[in-house]
Request: fold
Amino acid sequence: MKTGIKLFFDMFSENISEKSKMQCDAFGGRDEYFKYVAENCDSVEISPVRATDDPEYMLYAAKTVNGLGLHFTIHGVLGHESVFFNPYKLLFKSKLQPLYNITVHPYEDMEETKRTLAAICDIARAENYPVRITLENQRYSSEGKLHNLCRDVAGCVAEIGSPYLYNCFDFGHQMSNALKQGEEFDEVTEQFLSQVRQTHIHSYDCNSTHFPLYCGSVRLEKNITGLIRHGYDGVLMIELDHGRYMGKHDLKKAVVGSIEALKNAMAQIEGKLRVTEVYKNGYRDAVKNAASLLDSDKDGLVALAPSAYILKLGGTKIAIDMSLCTMPVSEENVKAVADIVSGCDAVIVTHNHADHFDPALLSLVSDDVPIYVPDFLSYNKKNVTYVSDGTDISVGDVQIEFFESAHSAGENVVPEYGFAAKHNGKHYVFPTDVRCYNAEHKVFHNTEVLVPHLWLGRRMALMLTDNNYIEEFAAFVNSFGAKRVLVGHLYDIHREIDDMWTDIHFDAVKEKIPCCEKILLGDITEF
Reply:
C-alpha cells in the first residue's frame, strides 16, 4: 500500500490562499513543503477540484506532482454529469498516469446521488476515460446525511454496478459516527470493505474530524487490517485540515507526526499479522528449539512468548513467567510447553499480569517442579513457595535473588519482583516490566547478561520522534553495566499496535545501548 497526504488545490496557484500559505510556511515555503512530501510519501490527493476549475490549471498541478515523482489522486465535487469531467479532459489526454481516481461526496439525497453517478459512469464508459470514481462515506450531522453511511455507500455502488465506481473509506467520518451514535449505527460491512479503492485517514478529536493521527481517535489497526483482508493495495491517504486544529497543534508537527504514525502503523500491522501466523501455525518450531536447548550442554535462553522464557545455566533449567493465555496457541502446543516446563528445576512468576502469570498452563505442570511466586500474589498450588524483596533461593547450582522492580509509578502501582540468577560468579539479571526508569534499582556486579523489557510510553508505539522514553530506557539499561543486553517483550500481539513493541522500537534504542540484541519468539540465544 502507498502512503499519501492531501494537498489543497490552491497550493499550486500563484494566488495561494492564506490558509494554504500558512501550511507551506510551516515547512519554510511551498517548495520545501512539496519536497518534504515527495521524500516521505508515495502519493498526494489534490483537493478540492470543482467542475468550474480550469483544465489547464488541473493539468499544471498534476504535472507538478508528477515531476516530484509522486502518484496522485483527486478529490472532486459531485455535480451534473454534463460538466463533471470538464476539469479533467486535458489530464486524461496527458497520460501522466494509466488511471485517475476521483473521490466525491454523495448528495444528501441518495437517490439523486445514484442517478448522477450512474450517468457519470455511462459517460466514462462511452468516452473510454481512464478514470475511477470513489464514493465517500459521510459523517452523520443531520437527518439529511442519515443515508450516506458505510452500508449506504456500499449499497449505492453495488446497485449501480459499474466498473468505474467504487468506495472511498473515510476513517474519520466513520469514527465520528461510531463514537457519537454507537458502533452499530455505522457498521463497516464486508461488502463495503470489498468495494474500497481509496481511503481518507484522519483523527476525530475535539468534537471534529481531520485532526492529526497522533491524537484523538482513529482506528488504524482495525480498518487497515480489514482492508488487507480484502486485498486492498491502494493509497492510505492522510486527509488533514489544519484550519480545524490551528492553535492546538503545530502545523509542521501535525503533518510529520501523522505520516510517522501511519508508516509505523503499517509496519506494526504487518509484524503483528506475521507473528500471529507463527503462533497459530509455526509455534511448534519454538517448542522444539526450547527442548533442543534443554537437551544440549550449552547455556542460553529461549522465548516461548513475549515475556515467557526458558533459561538454562549449567545443568539448571528455569522457566520464567510461563504464560500463553494471551497468545493464539493451540491446546496441543500448550500441553507441549507444559511438558517442557515439567522438565525444569523451577518456575518463577514475577507479577500478576496475564502475559506473565497463566494458572491454566501452570496447572498442567508437574507438582514436582517448585513454583516461586511473589508474596503479593495468591496462588493455591501445593508446590508454590512465596518470595519477597531480598529473598535468596538456590535452584541446582544457580543462586537467585529477588528484588522489587518499578513496574509503574503514581497511583496505578503494579507490584512485581525482578530477579538475578548467579552462576559461576556471573549474574543474569531480569528486571521484568520496568516502567519507571528513573526509580532506584539494584545493580549487580559482574552482570553478564541483562534482559530488560522494552517500553516507550503508554499508547506511544506509533510515535518515536521526540520520545523521551528512548533516552530513559537506554540510561536505565546502561546503568547495569551488563556485558550483553537482550531486549525482550517484543511482538506482544494481544496488544493493540499503538501499545506493542517491535523491531522499529528496538532499532530506536539499540544504537544507544552497547552489545544490544533482541529476543524473538523461538530463537535460541546462547551464552
Notes: The two ends are 41 Å apart (CA to CA). The longest helix spans residues 251-295. DSSP finds 15 helices and 24 strands in the chain.
